[in-house]
Amino acid sequence: MPIVSEEYKEEKKEQILDSAFECFAKKGFQTATMDDIVAHCGMSKGAIYNYFSSKEEIYLDLLTRATDKNFAQYHKHFAKHRTASSKMDYLFNAYLSANPIDRNRLEYIVVFYEFNLHSTRDPDLLQQLHERKRKLVTLVNDIIQEGQQLGEFKSNIPSQLYAERFWTIIDGVNLHAVYDDFPYYDVLRELKEMYLDELKSE
Amino acid sequence: MPIVSEEHKRQRRNHILLSAQHCFAKKGYHITSMDQLVQHSGLSRGAIYNYFKSKEEIYLELMKGIVTREIDPIESHIKTLPSNLEKIAYLFDHYYQLEPMCEEQKEAFFVQLDFQLSASRNPDMMTTLDELHKNMKFELVKRILQEGKESGELKLNIHVDIYTHMFWSFIDAANMQRILFPELPYQSILMDQKQSFLKKITK
């Protein structure tokens, strides 16, 4: 067997991930099969199975990469922000600045929630999604607690609940972005104002 | 041919739809075949085709029934409430009180969500979804907000359409979470959101 460099492996992996995402987006996560991915990718079945054993594994890798990338970006920016309010502002703006009718973004959202629904039939997958969710909640919870210590945010607010609520807001506008005439920007801006009004000290 | 009463037909039809709801929730719409629907319903293939032309027609009719069953009880309760503020509070309370959800309700939410996602690839489904969303869910909340403004209970500067979208996007996300992660405190999240929402719109 030839010696294959890490770089080569990573390149192949990315090729599979891109192909797989296109299949998921086109057919739906449930309907797309490993065979579809093989056909679309132009690699042999054996070659693909060398890297991933199932479409679920492929999707989880895609999701983990996207989440890690977002987290790296958040933390890079947070380092520049001195107040907790400006960090919360940055997080909301990350979503406010997204283009709601961007085809690629919509596909990403649809496949993500399809995978979520699919996971309700598999406790292991659900567990992984749950862990991801916990990381997201912790990210916001830490900012809220920091703001409470600094006196920027009301001290009597249950930070964990508020962190969960932030992500419910984001899930909501993302889910509704599939409707043609959903005013994504206006809705999120208003929800942001409502949320921050409640959080900030008088 | 025996004479079949309208009532019997209605029951048959509902039985097929409910059986399909279970199959779609368990396996997903796309993977479920007409044969599986036939088998699970316990009826004959011919009997089912008497009522529905295709799997897609079942899906569309099922979706209409699900949204109607979700909204009708809210509509009828709201009629009994004297003020628009109470009506809006009730909208949140209604979803708060759904706990614990029975299997059938969970399946209904699941199918609704799955339908919404699938519709993004299917223009016919999107048309049905848009109509249902607009005529039943959107209209209900919009009307209350509008009347609340006219009666002087609510602030005049709130944008009715935007607040209606804010309500439903949040409710849908909360309902999704209760299917996925029932251990999360979405009930408290819902009540916090209700407080903020009311505070923001009340004069």
TrEMBL record, chain A:
Record feature DNA-binding region, as residue ranges: 33-52
Keyword vocabulary terms for this entry: DNA-binding, Repressor
Chain ranges of the HTH tetR-type domain: 10-70
Source superkingdom: Bacteria
A Pfam family hit: TetR_N
Protein name as catalogued: TetR/AcrR family transcriptional regulator
Native organism: Robertmurraya beringensis
InterPro entries the UniProt entry points to: Homeodomain-like_sf, HTH-type_Tx_Regulator, HTH_TetR, Tet_transcr_reg_TetR-rel_C_sf, YfiR_C
Gene3D superfamilies according to UniProt: Homeodomain-like, Tetracycline Repressor, domain 2
UniProtKB/TrEMBL annotation, chain B:
Protein name listed in UniProt: TetR/AcrR family transcriptional regulator
Lineage top rank: taxon: Bacteria
InterPro entries: DNA-bd_HTH_TetR-type_CS (IPR023772), Homeodomain-like_sf (IPR009057), HTH_TetR (IPR001647), Tet_transcr_reg_TetR-rel_C_sf (IPR036271), Tscrpt_reg_YsiA_C (IPR013570)
DNA-binding region(s), residue ranges: 33-52
Source species of the chain: Robertmurraya beringensis
Alphabetical keyword list: DNA-binding, Transcription, Transcription regulation
UniProt cross-references to Gene3D superfamilies, sorted A to Z: Homeodomain-like, Tetracycline Repressor, domain 2
Sequence ranges assigned to domain HTH tetR-type in this UniProt record: 10-70
